[in-house]
Design goal:
This protein is of the alpha/beta class. It is built from ten helices and eight strands. The chain folds into two domains: about 140 residues, HAD superfamily/HAD-like (Rossmann fold); about 70 residues. It has a six-stranded parallel β-sheet, sandwiched between helices. Strands 2-3 form a two-stranded antiparallel ribbon. α4 packs parallel to α6.
Length: about 240
């Protein structure tokens, strides 16, 4: 198959940060008087595809948090900036794969639910920002990854063809949205983030275990399902 552009999620896709996200919201809510329970778990799951301001707004309303949205957002930002600036690391093979795409002059962009400033901080510290032309955050235009707008906006920035612009995601909702919108997709799976692989495979053109088994050639050598079958030679 052809690849002329690439749209990457960040958290859990090119960096190993989802364990931070699984803990940061319960810690935030506990600091503001709301202990973790089944209701909190369900609320967090429903909010995952949202931008951070929308997620804060939804959690405050649903869980009756007394603190203001601004206070909660500032506290959350402080916590994630600390992790992004000190402890978060890339997947061991993600930079090598990004370098392959860069060497082939394939433009890349980030599409994330996280604030662009925090993602940029992380990627610059890890010397990975060099691979991307921009960071599109769900905050930018009130995007939600359960809707295709963030991927279509990233596509406009890349100025590439949708059918040959690949979306790399680790979350079921992202893969589902991108695949339904006509993008080829790569499911970036790992062993410790508890993602439901069975729920993601139907929406994945390719599956990789955190880039350990993926190369540019893997994508390019994949048969194009839209190509017309070769005609049999006349005997």
């Amino acid at each position: 198959m052809t690849i002329t552009g690439a749209i990457f999620d960040c958290d859990g896709t090119i960096v190993d940060s989802m364990s931070m996200w699984w803990s940061v919201f319960p810690e935030l809510l506990a600091a503001h008087g709301r202990a973790y329970d089944k209701q909190v778990a369900a609320a967090l799951k429903r909010c995952e595809a949202m931008s951070l301001p929308d997620e804060i707004r939804s959690l405050k309303e649903e869980l009756s948090i007394a603190a203001s949205e601004e206070e909660l957002f500032c506290d959350l930002t402080h916590r994630i900036r600390k992790a992004y600036s000190t402890t978060i690391q890339p997947w061991p093979r993600s930079k090598a794969f990004l370098q392959q795409l860069a060497d082939a002059n394939i433009p890349m962009i980030i599409a994330t639910s996280t604030s662009a400033a925090e993602v940029r901080l992380c990627l610059e510290r890890l010397d990975m920002m060099q691979y991307f032309i921009d960071i599109i955050s769900a905050e930018e235009k009130d995007f939600n990854k359960q809707e295709p707008d963030i991927y279509l906006y990233a596509l406009e920035k890349l100025e590439t063809n949708r059918a040959s612009t690949w979306v790399f995601e680790d979350a079921p909702f992202g893969l589902m949205t991108a695949a339904a919108s006509g993008f080829p997709t790569v499911c970036v799976h790992n062993d410790h983030d508890a993602r439901n692989l069975d729920a993601m495979l139907p929406y994945s053109t390719l599956l990789t275990h955190i880039f350990e088994d993926l190369s540019l050639a893997t994508i390019q050598n994949l048969p194009d399902p839209t190509a017309a079958p070769a005609e049999k030679p006349i005997e």
